[in-house]
Amino acid sequence: MNIRVRTSSGRTKPETVKIREKIFYACQDCKNRYYDHHILCPQCLGMVSTSSPQVSDLTIISSPETRSNESVELLQTLSGNQDFDFRKALKSLPWKCIRKTDRPVLQHWKECLEAEGLDCEIAPALEEPKRRSGKMYLPLFKDYAPLPAFLPAATTEEAKQFSRSIENAAVRMRWVEIVLKSFTLLEELFKQRSGRILFYDIIFRIDHQIHETTVDFSSARLKDALFEKRISKLRESLQQWESEIKAVRESIEEQL
User: Fold this and answer.
1) 16 in Cβ contact with 3 (< 8 Å)
2) Residue 131 scores a pLDDT above 70
3) What is the pTM of this model?
């Protein structure tokens, strides 16, 4: 926003005052506001959206031919889409794979893809040409792409619904804390080179633990004491997995 400054005599001064709008992030469910973007709302696990979205596109510029299978597998996992022809799309580079999506969401995608060796670029969204070039491939998401799926969509939705069903606020916050810790660990694995491959079993175990908890403790059978024991067990498991990851990485660094 530009504001022209007028003097007391009515003349317009040449100086221009620039005002920058403060961007915040709001949960679509509980409406809590934050000044930093979160993958899930720290209060209720809801989706967080930007007050003033910076709509942009994500383009894959290049992809290592020697890791084409891993690249396809990663894209299938993050999108939850097994039917899309990723192999053909990656042969039609540069490929604008995600369009008209908020920049913080694209940044998560970019970091995950670059960990697999793909070269990506985020740029302001432009209107598609009326006539497509023969080399252009259809985008994976045409607009409003979801965040990368570190866990299957069904498991994430189960965790959210279970959170909504817990009436005790203190108990609910302990569940939210565990889920957020799990996602933090998953995010690190997907954004570290070879992390997803080296620790695939940990990703599987996190998925299994969250799913089993939501099944074993429905709102009708939720007992605070038993649930607290499960939460403690999950917390210990996360700490153990973090230690395993650290030990493996230190061992790899020593061998280099």
Assistant:
1) yes
2) no
3) 0.84
Nearest-5° Cα angle at 175, 248 to 144: 80
**Alpha carbon of residue 150 to chain centroid:** 7
Domain borders along the chain are: 2-50, 55-124, 153-255
| Chain segment 61-107, per-residue pLDDT in tens | 999 988 899 999 999 999 999 999 999 999 999 999 999 999 999 99
Name the residue type at position 163: S
Checking if the pLDDT of 140 tops 90, the result is yes
Strand order in the sheet with 33-34: 33-34, 25-27, 48-50
Measured distance CA(196)–CA(191) in Å, rounded: 8
3-state secondary structure of 192: coil
* Structure tokens given for 229: 């024991």
CATH code: domain 55-124 is 3.30.1390.10
